[in-house]
Structure formats: C-alpha cells, structure tokens
Input
Amino acid sequence: MATADLGMSLLSKLLSDFYRKSNAYFPDRIEEREFGIGDLERKIAYRHMQFKSDDEFRKYMIANAPPYVSCSSAYYHFPAGRPMSAKGWIGSELIFDLDANDMHLDCQKVHGGSWVCSNCLEKVKEETFKLIEDFLIPDFGFSDNEIMVNFSGNRGYHVHVKDDVVMKLDTDARKEVSDYIAGHGIDFEQIFREEMVRGSKIRKLVGPRPEEKGWRGKVARKFISIMNNGKESLEQMGIDKSIARKLYEKRSLVEMGIRNGNWDMVYIKNKADFWKSVIEKQAVAQSDRIDKNVTNDTGHMIRLAGSIHGGSGLIARKMAAYRNMERFDPMKDAVAFKEGSVKIITDTKNVLNMNGNEYGPYTKEEVVIETAPAMYLYLKGLAKVVAIE
Ligand SMILES: [Zn+2]
Output
C-alpha cells in the first residue's frame, strides 16, 4: 500500500504492548533455540536468529513487533550458525501440527478455507485429544508432563513432546512414529486370521479384542463404536444395507463375540476397503501432512507458544496441562487485544463469534467494534482500519 496503513501501525503498537506485558512467550533453554521472524506476507522472512536471554528477546519483540515469531523444535549449540550443519544439533522436541484446514470438514465448504468456525475449532480439538490419548500416552508411554500443548493461534493445536529419548530421534525414527499414528503400513491380514474349527471343515475368523494394546485394540474398539452408532454409521463405512441392519440388530451378540476375539458374526464383503476405512477413521486425521512437514523434520520452525498469530491477532496460548484443552475456547481464552475500539470498513458473510459476542455479517459497512474482533477481521483481510476510537 502506498499510503501508511493505519491497520498496520495499530497492529505494531498492539504487538509491542503485548510483548512488553506478557511473560508467557519465553521458550525453555532460549539461548539454544533458533528463531524466525515473519511479516504479513511471509510467516518466516528471516531465520537463524538467536537470543541469549529472555530479556534480550523481550527487547527485540517490543522494538520490532513482528506479526509472526517461530522457534525451532531443536536445541543447538550455535542456533545462529549457517548452514544447518554448523548449528551443532543437540536434540529436537517431537512436534505435531494439527490444523482444521487439513481435515476436509463440511463446514469449510460453506465458509471457505481461510475462515474458522466453532465447528472447525471443536473438530481439531478432538483430533488433538485423539493424538494424545489414543497414541502418545497409551502406545508410546509418554506421561502428561512430557506433553505440552498450545493453541496454534488460528485454527489448530501444536503438540510438543519433550521426553529425553524422543529428543535424540533422527528423521527416520520420527517417520516411524508418524507412520504409526497415520495407520500407514498396517496389514489387516495380520490383525485377522482364519482358523479351522477342530474336527470340522468350518473356518473361524479370529481377530483383535478391544483391550489389546496398539492398533489391534484400536481396530476392535472402533468397530464396536461404529456398530453401536447405528446402521447409518456402518453403511458410511461401505457395508451393504442389509448386512448393516443385521449387524446392528445383533449388535450385543456381535460385540460379545469380538470381546472374545471371535469375529465370525461379522460378514463384510469388501474386507480390504472396509478395514482400511476403519483404520483411517481411527488414525489422526491429516497425519499425511504431519508426516511430510513437521514431525519428521528435526530442524522445523514452529510458531512460538505464547506469541501472537499475525493472521488472527490471537495468542498461541499454552495449556498448563493438555486436559485444559477441554474447556479452552480460543475465541475467548486466546483473545489478546482487550482495550479500546476501532472503526473499520468490513465485508464478510460469516459471523464472527468472539468473547461471547457476535459480529457480522457485514456488507461493506463502516462499524465501530472492540479492538480484538476488528483486528481479527483486518488480519483475515476482510476489513480496513479507518480510525482508532
Ligand atoms: Zn468450520
């Protein structure tokens, strides 16, 4: 923009104030972390930055007020070193980046990919709980205090695992972790096997029991839950209408069988496809993306927990314990700019819910609203700041 953008100067002031007052954006072992700084065009415009202390970092943040700040998942002897091999890698947190945008939700077809609604936020929260409670804790044995969760600042959550063993994992080992969580390479032939019933020609299908560890137990539990959800759930998994009805009617009996490892009550025609979809339902959604970009990369830069997201003005708020996510409402608990009002011209067909209030829809209107929703619309590219009230 040729003329000074009032929105941009307001944002700088708000960010500077925020970083002056907050104490919740300093990572552990700050002097061993690499930082990256972004503007509104590029989330990471500069990297290979190092800060020797919280105080030095705070001064930088107050003076520069960058819209985006990223921090390495890795600890280095020389975080500012270049190329990467000169940094002296010490270890990396295992991180997972869960984003509602990768979940292909129906609501996104209505409100578009750049908008975030309460359903998006709820669904991605469920996936995050699934990652932690169905995989990280039971299958990998991490404990609550080794798992740190923060809101991404926009439409997802970041999970950081800081266990000593994990820190040293190389890219291949990290890939094994993400493949496991994505359900890649699971052989359902190994989960089920046919056994001859002794003294007869009858074959019996033996499969996993719900209380078993790992993927076997997950498959059994998921099947029981799909079945108990009703015929429609079974049909959605590609089971014929008539079989779905039969399974649902006899669900108590079928469930009892499965609890004893006997899957003979379950007749499914396209077995391979069916089990593939059971596994997909139970895997953490969008884990394909987790694979490629984040979890496997030991030098990955991720939004600094406790900093502001420049695409929303919300705080990438840290949870004291992952279970606090349950009651966490990003559109209330991650709101940063709590003072004053702003006059904006805005055009949006979606309703913004923030702090228990509704804003919009607006059709090229001039409105005066509180700073946080005004900046949210501005940073989403849906509003122009006209005046600071
Ligand atoms: Zn949505």
